[in-house]
Every structure is written in structure tokens, then in C-alpha cells.
Amino acid sequence: MKINGSQIVIECLVEQGVDTVFGYPGGAVLNIYDALYKNSDRIKHILTAHEQGAAHAADGYARASGKVGVCIATSGPGATNLVTGIATAYMDSVPIIAITGNVGTSLLGKDSFQEADITGITAPITKHNYIVKDVKDLANTIRKAFKIARSGRPGPVLIDIPKDVSANLCEFESQKPEEIKRFVPKKEDVETARELIMSSKKPFIFAGGGVISSDACNELFEFAKRISAPVSCSLMGLGAYPATDKLFTGMLGMHGTKASNTAASNCDLFIAVGTRFSDRVISDPSKFARHAKILHIDIDPAEIDKNIKSYHSVIGDIKEVLAPLLKDITSLENPEWLDHILGLKKKFKIGHTHIGSLTPYFVMREVDKQTGGDAVITTEVGQHQMWAAQYYSYTKPRTFISSGGFGTMGYGTGASMGAALSGTGKRIVHIAGDGSFRMNSSELATMKHYNIPVIIVVMNNGTLGMVRQWQALFYGGRYSQTTLDRGPDFNILAEAYGVRSYKVQTESEFKAAFAEALSLNEPVLINTMIDIDERVLPMVPAGRPIDELILE
Amino acid sequence: MSKRILSVLTENRAGVLSRISGLFSRRGFNIDSLAVGTTEDETVSRMTIVVNGDDYIIEQVSKQLNKLIDVIKVKTLDDSDIVSRELALIKVAANSETRSSIIQIVDIFRAKIIDVSHETLTIEMTGSAEKHKALFDLLEPFGIKEVVKTGMISIQRGTNYINK
Lengths: 552, 164
Fold this sequence. Notes:
The structure holds two protein chains of two kinds. Chain A is of the alpha/beta class. The longest helix of chain A has 15 residues, at 51-65. Chain A starts with a strand and ends in a 23-residue tail after the last strand. Chain B is an alpha+beta fold. In chain B, strands 5, 6, 7, 8 and 9 form a five-stranded antiparallel β-sheet that branches. Chain B has a four-stranded antiparallel β-sheet with strand order 2-3-1-4, with helices on one face. In chain B, strand 6 (112-116) and strand 7 form a beta hairpin. The longest helix of chain B is centred in the middle third of the chain and has 13 residues, at 55-67.
């Protein structure tokens, strides 16, 4: 049977198991939105306040569920408004599909109204992208796009559909999605890794987001226990290993713990699992893990030896690497090494350096306590992001959702909605800073309209705190353009959107407000007043070796 | 730093060249020359890319190229096991007095005259980069008006194939 391009889009999305999409209509996607209207019983469309919100929502949806997130925007400005969201997903290897409309094929390249070369613009920030110029190619392009987004190292794929292509008719036959095969490592590489591990005396594990993408958290847990190695995580890796476990030493790098940063600098085998050695982790590459052989396990061969030269590497899906390793490794015990590192963990507890009557440490611990550590935490970018990472104990994968690589302020309102609609069954608590929140606070309208029960905790210190912290430490206290001594009043803002809100200044007020928010099934904003000079500690000054920590 | 030659097979599709050249520029890799054309299979293009870089850069370039969905195969060619050619068209000033001297030089280099006017000669020259430079140096005193080059193309010797 012949159907039009827009109906093909719908059929292909359904084929891939998509039930929710985020987007914003416009001229070039009129046909697609007409099909969405006719198929509203098959695909739920969430209308965001801005296309950026839709891109971040698709991203949050994907991170929270492991499924592919989908966003839709019109040509030109609609498409370019997705760009920050796509780049965010690209840097953190999140599988999303961005569908954009474009002007008709006869108008392409003529500076037509609302025309932008979005495949050109997004080439550096997508895993791949397509412009479909013939409706006959549409179905297979969408199928390929989903496969590319999900397979290997995941990432965003954009499909640009000119207006006539979404209107033209074509034969369509439904197909089952292709199975995604896991990337199996070379046997001899695993064997060498095993030998390295068995001969190490001071092993240390560093887990990244790849462990979560590969669904290998159970394997990681067993692996760490088997070899008695302390375990640290990157920001993206939080939740890959239970923070409540004895072997967990916290984050590594610029805002890492004393225990993790010392362990990295003194171990004899540094086992990097599903991570890309971001500059925020390694700081000075010549001093990083300087006494260790580095064993790098990752799915992407291009990450091996890119930022840090490895001694040995295993390329493959983390689950497929850890499973055979576990089969062959006997128990290792290194009590002296373990006692030393776990001693540091006890001695240098984080979170006691705060000032003021309501501290970020208290806020995050209270959120942890009241949710039983079982919420999904989303964040924006800045100090509050680091506090959310440091002080809440993530015990399960996909419970910490944050823009790590790209560091996108304004990420969280969209991402929290996506997470809330992804069917995780968990409460979503969005930790924001006042600066970041202002960037995309318009999504409150979306939360209210669809009654998306996100609890937004705005840690309001009236400043761009992370930049202020650097200005205080390295720029002589010259607070250039970082003091946010201006509106809006977030409580009045929330009211304008019809969203319930609280303003809290003390511990007991926060406790009560958060408890009430949890009891409600609706979006809530808690305007949480904290001191302007709160800092994120520990901290490694830029370019210094990571064991040179500022602790207070 | 040294010059290395990469042979890259790609899908023959619109936009592939910009993806590849974009990759080089955003990752800060320097391209000396890039030549592209279709192969025995018209759905496949082959690029010869001459890159200036050390082992680290060459490894990075080839890994990053391999990640592009449109790239089918990347091979770093071994200098000692390939034949390489580059074609140049050189337009040089020539009048009745200088014309015969230029033609003599062209003959020595086994290059060809492909266009003549009262004031110019256009020479077609195929060969290695060294041969090009030598000819260029000899022609320079006559006044070189324009040069256009194809960029280097390379192929492995004997029964070595890129897909092997």
C-alpha cells in the first residue's frame, strides 16, 4: 500500500518501539505533524516550550531508560535550536534521533525561507546524519539511523526530511528492527588483560559511562569484588557501581576525592572501564597514574591512546569484556593497598566544608534520605551539579543524569521531563542552579501542562557559583559578570506557570517542603536559598596533578 | 613530523568529502593534499590523503576516519611499497626567444606541451613530488604564470590490494 512520507515516519517510529516523541511544529514539518495528529493514539507527542527543551528531553528519556529518544523540529531556526541538545548527547554518547523538516527539495540551496543546512551544521556533533531527498529512501534511512544510534558506542543521529519528501507517496512494508550485536573483544587481548590483573599488587578501577551503556554494572561489581580493587567513577559513570559499597571511593579528577585521586596516583594497575579519559579527569596527562600500567577497556578504538597512552587495551562491549575476564580470574587480595585507600576514604570525608544555615551537603543528603536513594537525579551544570554528584549515593545505573562532556547549562529542565516520561517508575528530582535554571525555565509550562511530576530543587546562591569559585581562587576575587543580583523571583515565576513552589532558608524548611513535594504527584519547585560563597571541594586547580587537591 | 599517505575507500555519496575534510579541520590535522575519484566500483570513491604528522597523529586520523559511517576502509600506505603520481598543469611565460629552451626542458622531463599562445606555454607533467619541484625550479626563471595540481594519488605495488 502507498502511504506518504510522514506516515512512513510514524510507521518506522512505531516499528522501533517509540511511543513518545518531543518536539515543536513549524512550516516544514506540517505534514509530519498532520500524521502525528492522526496517530496520536500510537505516538504521544510532548510539545515543549522550545526546541532545545525537546532535544534535552529526548536525551533525558534515553539516559533514564536506555531506549532511543526522539525529537522533532522544523527547518531553519527549529533545527538550529536542537543543536546544543544534539551536541550534548554526542559528547555523552546518548542515542537520540533528531528529525528535522527542511524546505522542499526544489528550494534547497536557494536561501529559502527558514532554510538551514542542518546536516552540514550537525556533521561534527552527530554520529551520523542524513538528508532524505527521495521518499523511496525514507524508511530504510530511519531504520539505519536507529541502528547507528544504538550500536557500538551510541550517539545522536539526525534525519533531515524536505517538505515534499514528507508529502510524497511510496510503498511501505513494515519490518522488524535489526538486532544489535554486541562488540566482542579479541580473545588474546582479554587474556593479556587477565595476566596484567593477576600480577598486579595495587589495582584500581575507574568506571565510566560505557559500563552503564553496555549494561555491565553487575559484571563490574563482581569484578571489583573478585580482585579487591577500590572503584572510582567518572561523572558519567556514577551509578555504575553502588556508592554505598565499601570499595567505592567516589569520583576521580578535578572534583574527585582524596581517596580516588591518591589511588590513581599510586596504583600499579589502572583499570579504565568504559571511559574516555576526559581532561576533567586526567588534568596533567604527564603526571596521571604515573606509577601504573594503564589497562584501557572501551568499545571505541579511537579512545585508546587518544588522551592517555595505555599499556594494554581491550576493545569491545564492556559486558563482553568483563564476562570472560570473570570466568578466568581467581580471587586477588591486597589487604595493605586496600586498607590504605579505604583509610583515606574514611579520613577525608567530603561535604563538611560548607557554610551557612542551609548547605548543599544537607540538601543532597536529605534528598537521598527522603527518596531512599532510589530517585533519578537530573542536574544542570555548575556547582550544584558537582554537589549532586558528590553527596547523593547513586546505587543504580541510569539514576544520575547530567551533561558531562558538553557541560550544557539549561540541560536539566528538558532532561528531567524526558526522564520522567521514560517509564522508569522512579521519582525525578531535578537539582538546578539559579543560573542554569533561568536558561530554560520556560519548560515549566510543559511540566505543568502534562503534569510531569518533577521536583525541581533550585540551589539559589544568586551567582554563577562555579565561575565565581574560580574568580575567587584564581582571579583575585574579581567577580566579573557572575553575580545574579536580579530577577526573576523563582516563586513568582513558578506561580505564573501555575507550578506549586516553596522558598526555603533553613534545614527544617527544606525537609518539610521536600516531604510535601514527594507526597504530591505534580511538578514542584523548591527555591532553596544557599550562601553565595559555598564551594565545590575537593578541587584540583587546572593543569595540576590530581593528587594535589585543595581540600578546604 | 613526516608526510604519510592514507588511502581511504568511502561510499560515493554527496557530503562524504565535507565530512572527511571537516574531520581533519576540527581535530587539527593538516592535509597536504587530497585527491578523490571513483573506483572500479562506481558506488565507491577512493581518496588519497597526504597528511603531515607523527605516528600519534596518523593513528588518530585513521581511527577517527574509521568512525565515519561512510568510510569503508582506511589504509596507511608504506612509502617503500607504492607507486605515486601527481599531475600538474603549469602555464609559463614564453615568447619566440624563450620558447625553444622551455621545450627542451619539457622534453628532458618527458612532460608535454598541451597549449601554446604567443605569450605562454602550458605544460602537463606527471610524476613524483621531487620531479615536480625540479621542473618547477627550472621553469621559474622564465616566469610561471599559473600552476594547478591534482594532488598525489598512490597505489600499492604488485599483488597488494587495498582490500587485502
